[in-house]
Every structure is written in structure tokens, then in C-alpha cells.
Design brief:
alpha/beta, 249 residues, 10 helices, 7 strands, globular
Length: 249
């Protein structure tokens, strides 16, 4: 794994969503007293494609090794993940519960895909290698953004469209396969001892707010914030509000 690192202080690790790279956090500044660490999922950004099949368990061990290489093997972390990054954060929390000072789950879910959704992932994994990202952009972008963003923030729509179009097909195929085969983390929720914050967009077309609320009720002492005017990509659609939330950590 490779990551970008900004600022100094306690580590705040943020895991990006699909099909983006750590570039999706580009508007973010390190909150006061934190060192921001922004890993790239294998094949995206600066992280190379792995030579063999991986899963979120292998990725979590790879993240722990990467943090060790940054001199952070014993240091308590704040770990956040959005969407796909949330699936990764769940698995890390399962394997390394003692490492976490705080957990931030953004636009994500603990459960696995319904059979139809899983099949859609595997079909895209196959198709994108043959056809590239072009055929998928128009279908993906509206689901990632709120109606508010789609109608009032053209520069965000353009940026997200560019990122989706530029996503590396082999990395997209890998990520879809890893997500399709992920573990159901529902049983983990009640066992999470780490202070947890869930962020959801009020207009998220991919994960209903009801799911985020149900998840928050299962995690002991969890805080839930639902942000108005945004969809699935909270940090991109409303970077200011996201920054303000992190600044209060």
C-alpha cells in the first residue's frame, strides 16, 4: 500500500470510496493536532495492483504493516472509511480492535449485498476490463450524488464524472470482486468498544438513512450525524461541513 500524509500529530487514517483514490479527500486539511494519512486501495492512486487475489482481511493486515512502516505500529488511530473504505474499516476494527481510538463510518453499511447487487458487481468486474470505464460513467454518477448536488453543484458533478471515467479498469474489477465477497459485519456492531461516529447523507440514493440509523443503534454509544443536501459522497459534495466535523474530533 501507498498513502499520502499531511500534517503532524495523532494519526487520522481515511479510507476512500469506490471507484476513487485518496484524491477524493483533496479538499481536506489535517484537523488541528492530527496527521492525516490517506491510503490508496490497491490499483488506485499510488498503490500497485497486487499479484494475487486479496480480500478485506488481507488489506487490513497490509494497512497495519503500512502504518508500521510509517512508525505508527503502537500508536492509537482514528480510522475513517467511506463506502468501500467503510467495509475495509470494519474489517480492520474486527482484527485490530485495540488499535482504534475512534471509528468514523461514512456512507457505508455492515451487511453484505443482496444476490442481485452482488451479481451486478461481478458483471461490472468482468465488463470493465473489456470495455473500460466509459460505458459505466452515466449510470454511476447520479447514484453517488444528491439531487441537490446534481442540480446546484455542476463543478462537483464534473469532478466526480472525471474521476469515475479515469478509474483504472483492473483496479475497478479487483475492488468490485473484493466488495462482492466481503464478510457480513453485522455481528461486529454490538462488540465495537471504540467511540464511533456514523455520517450519512440525507439524500444518499445508495444507502438509506434507515440503515444508518439501525446501525447506529447497534453500536454502543454511537453518534449519528445525517447531513442535509448531500448524497453518498459527503466529503466531496460538502467538503466544508466534513472538515468542520473532523475539526471537532
Amino acid at each position: 500500500l501507498q498513502s499520502k500524509s499531511l500534517g503532524r500529530g495523532k494519526p487520522l487514517v481515511l479510507l476512500h470510496g469506490f471507484p476513487f483514490s485518496s484524491q477524493m479527500w483533496k479538499d481536506l486539511q489535517p484537523p488541528p493536532g492530527f496527521r492525516l494519512i490517506l491510503p490508496d486501495f490497491p490499483g488506485f492512486g499510488s498503490s500497485a495492483l497486487p499479484p494475487e487475489k486479496i480480500d478485506f482481511k488481507a488489506l487490513s493486515f497490509a494497512l497495519e504493516a503500512h502504518l508500521g512502516s510509517l512508525g505508527l505500529s503502537q500508536v492509537p488511530l482514528t480510522l475513517g472509511g467511506i463506502s468501500m473504505g467503510g467495509y475495509w474499516a470494519f474489517e480492520f476494527a474486527r482484527l485490530f480492535p485495540g488499535r482504534l481510538e475512534r471509528l468514523i463510518l461514512i456512507s457505508t453499511r455492515a451487511g453484505i449485498d443482496q444476490p442481485q447487487a452482488r451479481q451486478k458487481r461481478l458483471s461490472m468486474a468482468e465488463g470493465v476490463v473489456k470495455e473500460g470505464m466509459g460505458p459505466y460513467v452515466a449510470g454511476m454518477v447520479p447514484g453517488l450524488l444528491s439531487q441537490t448536488t446534481l442540480t446546484t453543484r455542476p463543478q462537483v458533478v464534473q469532478q466526480v464524472s472525471q474521476w469515475v471515467a479515469g478509474a483504472p479498469p483492473q483496479a475497478v474489477a479487483l475492488a468490485q470482486t473484493v466488495m462482492a465477497d466481503r464478510r457480513d459485519q453485522t455481528d461486529l456492531l454490538a462488540k465495537i468498544q471504540t467511540p464511533t461516529l456514523i455520517l450519512a447523507g440525507q439524500e444518499d440514493a445508495l444507502i438509506p438513512n434507515s440503515e444508518s440509523k439501525a446501525m447506529a443503534q447497534l453500536i454502543p454509544g454511537c453518534e449519528l450525524k445525517i447531513l442535509g443536501g448531500v448524497g453518498h459522497l459527503i466529503p466531496v459534495e460538502d467538503a466544508g461541513s466534513f472538515q468542520a466535523i473532523l475539526n471537532q474530533l
